[in-house]
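Team,

Forwarding the record for the chain on the shared tracking sheet. I've put the sequence and predicted structure together so nobody has to dig through attachments.
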Amino acid sequence: MKIVTWNCNLNFAKKYEHIEYMDADVCIIQECEKLNEDYFPNSKFFWTGRIEKKGLGILIKNGGACLDSSHNQDLINFLPIRSDNLKILGVWAYNHRAKKFGDNVSGETIKAIEFYKEWLSDGGLPCVFGGDFNNSVIWDKPNNKNNFQNINTHLESLGFTSAYHANTDDDFGCEESATFFHTKQKSKKYHIDYLYLKSLELSYVELGKYEDWINLSDHSPLIVRCNNLN
């Protein structure tokens, strides 16, 4: 099974061909427009967001996937999907920006972990928690509950492991490879996109190269393959 996360930087329908060739089973796409569930051949597309041109989408290939009934639309933008053999919680963390939609909403990943904790803890199916976290330990501040270190600690306590870090042994905040290039400049690079896996056997991890993706987005895709699911 192959899983991809990519912040497409808008207009996913026009950029889909650059992801299609990867033949991924699951694509978690940030900053994408709202599209019909059957928009892509042989796949189901799920979407959440408050802005129709800019939300979070999950594309599932050849499966009987569905939106989980636990979905909380006041958590922007987090999307729980369940298929026959996998659970996915897609992430495009809006962080403090979510407040513009009202005091009752949140874009913080830590609040999504707290809300979906029971769902994530259920050991019935393997699980993926991944996407654009808009976060790194390099920005952690004292007493901030949404610090990345706190997020990572909570996910690890639930049995999740960051695929990239398990594969490279890089320390968080000291990643050799970046996923985001601020203002598309190669010198302003950060690692803020993650795929956390639970009960999945990691086969390989790949990051798209800056030169191959920068004309499409300020993010590069993160690609993971697992052995124990077809």
